[in-house]
């Protein structure tokens, strides 16, 4: 891909759109119109112009965030913020040195540059080149005074190149796979080397700071016989994985409104005039682990089929702050991928064995084209074809509905082609220890490599025909559990274990989803109003299941437990702003849920929605429940937290001196409107990740009918009028009918459209 260096002298802001021959000579041009809540509507005649306009508008709202992200993927955090400081990498905090080593080691720029010529379609290349130009154009136009105070004058705010976009795209592909093992890869060293100085963990995929709910309702259950989609992704409230709204009108009739993450040149979740789609993080595993048998004479050599192979060393040098010498580490990679260590899990590099990781999303440059095709789709069949033929979706389910009344759930992603038979044949003596987290295979056998199926875009990927996809006229939903059940009336047949667990206990959030959705459908045909109330009901399934019997225990409660019982007896079982008792139950339930023998009726795969159930209240179990309640009450009171305070006074966002109450609560309590919060120094709960971009999309004769809220608002610049405006709307459950038509956009336009070109 040719480097698109921006020539500042050639750039010129257009007061009016150029015409004729002048327009034809422009390399980049776009028009940006802002409407309510600062939502940009970007119009361009070609894909370069689309990327150009999207980047410019995004930088207007989130320059500091995006500039920091480009420094991160370039492996420059230690240089600018110090090696020991931490920042969110993907969804978890990681020290800067580990982050830098990971990106400098794992991101293979020469391979990505080469891949861009073949894996990226011409229009995807144009989009990314336009994004580079648009970002750099904003920096030039902003000058020093136009840069937000938070990053004004910082050396890491700089023009970008094509390489920055390649790095950022690679990072997004790895978000829910090997990126979460960055410290484990960056700190791997042969036996005898100093032990890592940072904590290294293997996060549970179900505990990552991401999740989602998605519903596709078909024509059989909607009031108008057309499809209706509800999207409710649960993504971080801070950092580069925040969503940002946009409406893009490009060449050949492309017109999509929705959201994307930082650096995304087009909507990756949204709708056009005929279809709407959302994504939920899949339970499928997008990498495999390999246990290596080492050469006793050399721990950097490993055996495959009885023959030794030498690991490939890679010296990684990370620049430090001025005046401090650079840090160099040597990492090692194998045919199975990089070596990694997690001592707390028993994953070490010893004299006899080591572990490597092979990621199906490394080098995945197909995603942009996949989302372009989804945005062009006219029905859910074309969406299914897009995800199946490209295998470019990295780590999310695709849930969609169309104007013709069809609903789709496709758990089709870039996943290793590993069958159940291979998992069994290639198991090592310790594979069972990792079964819930990853697939561990025997790296001493070449036969344990991924199978190659004909027709896949990359050898070793599982073909879509072996993954799960369903189209119906009724309804389908997903809340991050596996493909096994997306409608309890039609469980899927069992597939490879790499695609997720089968016939195992569902999470409370998934069970709540199925319970509440069945009740919604049973209550009559579904329209926008009923769907919106469904998304924000804020019921806790855990409370529904537990409170009645817990109250019987309360008859014998004393002291602290009695005070807790009195509060819970008056609680409405919801996590609304006005709910009193929610803070107490939020603290109580995680401890109570761990009590062994809690449920009288165990899990039954024939009844996954309603089992396990019925808490035990007699004997030792009942005593443990009251003891857990007593400890919870005492802890909260010691922290100065009122047991009966309103939930909105406990979970909130500060907009300057203004406290904005936030409804919703933890998914582990069976709450669909999920908000996972962290306790601040003030004692208040601040949302960390949860409900972010919520959209309810249907169709009329003219086009899409979409209501939406972006819970944390468009801009991360505190000085922007759009830093908290939608957060207030979310707090009030005030939906916004998105302007899609030219007439609707004109009615909501803020200021004058901005035309940029060069």
Description:
With 758 residues, the protein is α+β, with helices and mostly antiparallel strands. Among the domains are: 29-183, Penicillin Amidohydrolase, domain 1, CATH 1.10.439.10; 287-359 and 420-448, Penicillin G acylase, beta-roll domain (Roll); 541-671, Aminohydrolase, alpha-helical knob region (Penicillin amidase (Acylase) alpha subunit, N-terminal domain). The protein has an eleven-stranded mixed β-sheet, sandwiched between helices. Helix 5 packs across helix 7 (162-173), helix 6 (122-142) packs across helix 7 and helix 15 (559-570) crosses helix 17 (619-638). It starts with 11 loop residues before the first strand and ends with a strand.
| Residues in helices, as a percent range | 25-40%
Q: Measured on Cα atoms, how large is the radius of gyration?
A: 26 Å
**CATH architect. name of the domain at 29-183:** Orthogonal Bundle
CATH topology of the domain at 29-183: Penicillin Amidohydrolase, domain 1
| Coarse structural class | alpha+beta
Cα-to-Cα separation, first versus last residue:
20 Å
Largest sheet: 11 strands, mixed
Give the low-pLDDT segments: 1-23
Oligomer: single chain
CATH homologous group name of the domain at 29-183: Penicillin Amidohydrolase, domain 1
The general outline is globular
Beta-strand percent range:
15-25%
Distinct helical segment count = 20
Mean pLDDT value: 94
